[in-house]
Amino acid sequence: MHIFIISWSGQHEKAIAIAQRLSPLKSQVSLVYSDANPDLILSTDGHQLKRSNALFWGDKFKACLDACASDVMLVIHADCQCEDWAALAQKCQAALRANPNIGVWTPRIHGTPYDISTTHVADIKGTTLCLVADTDALVFALSKPVQKRMQSANYQDNLYGWGINGAFCAYAYASHLWVVMDTSVEIHHQPSTAPSYPFQEARRQKAQFMTQLTMPEAIQRQLLNSHMEKKKLQLKYP
User: Fold this and answer.
1) What's the predicted TM-score (pTM) here?
2) CB count in 10 Å sphere of residue 17
3) N or C end of the chain: which has fewer CB within 10 A?
4) Domain annotation for the chain: domains and CATH numbers
5) Is the torsion defined by CA of 77, 60, 74, 46 positive or negative?
6) Beta strand pairing call for 120-123 and 129-132
7) What does the pLDDT look like over 146-192, one tens digit per residue?
């Protein structure tokens, strides 16, 4: 497993702390970061991948894909909180080792629109795993086949990275792979309240990015979206 911790201005101390908690593992850990100060170098001995501060999440995700030579790529955003990061990584690796059908693994993430109440598809008997229709790209792992598919995508015009999660979930299901959530592992994320976030531009970039899906992937994306919309209606009108 290769673990990538995503950091940006204001998050570096948290990223370094997460890396330190993962240090007892044998897995490779890389810090992928940007900063408003172009000369900043993080004060840590760990492997670092510095990116342009103007290129945001899409570029950092591509950097992870390019640097990963392992069967499992685990990505962690530094603004997420977990009681035991090492245990999370171990559970993730164990799940993918035990079941080659898993293409995407994610913990249960609180503070995201992709809540289990709307994404849940089916429980996997005898485990703490369930199939989900989508997951936020905050803490997640990709198997080698999903990594390879995502490497072929173009991220140049998708600075904010919206749609990345939808793309890797669509590819996984279109390839008969599973997207699973481990409900025994919980992550807490504080949603951004920044009024300056360019939501309209992020949505435009997402729409353009999703045109790269193949026909089977696009069909699968529509099916997954329909499933989540149905769940939302059931919650609204039980």
Assistant:
1) 0.96
2) 14
3) C
4) 2-236 (3.90.550.10)
5) negative
6) antiparallel
7) 999 999 999 999 999 999 999 999 999 999 999 999 999 999 998 77
